Amino acid sequence: MKKEEKNVKITPYEVEGSLSEKDYNNLIKQFGIQPLNPELLNRIKKHTKDLHFMLTRGIFFAHRDLNWLLDEYEKGNKFFIYTGRGPSGNTHIGHLVPWLFCKWLQDKFGVEFWFQFTDDEKFMFKHDLSLEEVQKYTYENMLDVIALGFDPKKTHFLIDTKHAGIMYPEAIKVAKKITFSTTKAVFGFTNETNIGSIFYTSMQTVPCFLPSVLKKKNIPCLIPLGVDQDPHFRITRDILPKLGYYKPAIIHAKFLSGLKTFGGKMSTSDSDSTIWVTDSPEEVKKKIMKHAFSGGRISIEEHRKLGGNPDVDVSFQWLYYFFEPDDKKIKQIHDDYKSGKMLTGELKQYLIDKINIFLKEHQKKRELAKKQVDKFIFKI
Ligand code: TRP
Q: Domains in the chain: how many in total?
């Protein structure tokens, strides 16, 4: 293996500190996933008319079986989308990246959206969390999903402990086909791992085919996810054909960087590295100004002379991934920062304003969401 082809350590339960572009390329090889190429983007565009910036900017960067999914769609076999959240804490900006993309998919393809809240998973994997705490976070996280504007008629929340009655009979069919040695190899489990954790991946598989069970016909499934979740679905994709269902198609996103180090996954345990969706404008300002890792120079003189480096600048990345969808504006910011015309303080202020405009609206919508929760929870 060449030096630059080092393996990246990444599973749903362990993500390496910092991921560079090279690491994402290595992950493509390591996971055996396909890069999202221009032909495929054009194929999507035929149906959607325009392309979401998360596709054109490579934030969604890889896939499994997307061509097959589009073949089926073109034959009139409409897919549904599925993603989820392990409610181990409040929602931060990083969580919203794949969810916002799901909203775009729902609008463009008019598809059903299934969202799983894995309270069982977080209870079993996080030693310090009680089931009550996890359920409180489930409720808080639901508000954030609803606030993004999904269509309540086409969006269905599954909460593992609440929907156990319909999920468990399907989960055991999956579990019967997974050996302990497979889960050890995929997730790094040991003899000390609690037995609930070992079973869990079968619960995450259920929403891939539950709609097919309910409708009594095979429906293709597309899963937008952060790339760390792919290992679960490698197991799923092995098993579902054996149960008579389609393998789910997948589209993989990169991680929005935490504030303190460029490329690191945003950590929920370090509040200074994260912007929570409930943060006040003052908190946003303080965190970005104080902690957002900068690709700027040490002095204004040097910055003006040599220019900054947007490629390692967390504020720039946050604009690129989420807060500045306008391609012309993002290019201008990139060029001005790189040439030294734009200073770090100005870049940060631009981001702070964008975040605060977004959060003001989001916080209003998540208040209104409190009255809508019941409409989103799946009823048989
Ligand atoms: N395991 C995921 C987490 O820890 C939650 C999840 C469940 C999920 N189903 C999913 C994520 C499907 C992506 C796609 O957050």
A: 2
Ligand 1 centre and the CA of 85: distance in Å?
5
- Identify whether residues 213 and 296 lie together within a single domain: no
**pLDDT score, position 19:** 83
Cβ of residue 89 lying under 6 Å from some atom of ligand 1: no
Q: Whose CA is nearest to atom 6 of ligand 1?
A: 84
Residue of 366, 350, 377, 375 whose CA lies nearest to 149: 366
pTM, to two decimals? 0.96
Q: Which residues of the chain have pLDDT under 50?
A: 1, 3
Q: Over the stretch 115-128, which tens digit does the pLDDT of each residue have?
A: 999 999 999 999 99
DSSP state of 310: G
Number of neighbouring beta carbons within 10 Å of residue 343: 17
In tens, the pLDDT along 85-95 reads 999 999 999 99
How far CA 121 is from CA of 116, 198, 267, in Å, comes to 11, 10, 18
- The confidence score (pLDDT) of residue 5 equals 60
Q: How far apart are the C-alpha atoms of 284 and 280, rounded to whole Å?
A: 6
Centroid of ligand 1 to alpha carbon of 121 (angstroms)? 9
How far is residue 306's CA from residue 27's CA, in Å, rounded to a whole number? Answer: 33
Is 266 among the domain residues?
A: no
Ordered DSSP codes for 187-199: H---TTS-HHHHH
Query: What CA–CA distance (Å, rounded) separates 246 from 266?
Result: 33
pLDDT for the residue numbered 272: 87
pLDDT given for residue 14 in this prediction: 83
* Ligand 1 and 208: CB distance under 6 A: no
Print the domain residue range for 28.
Answer: 9-254
Q: Does some domain include residue 378?
A: no
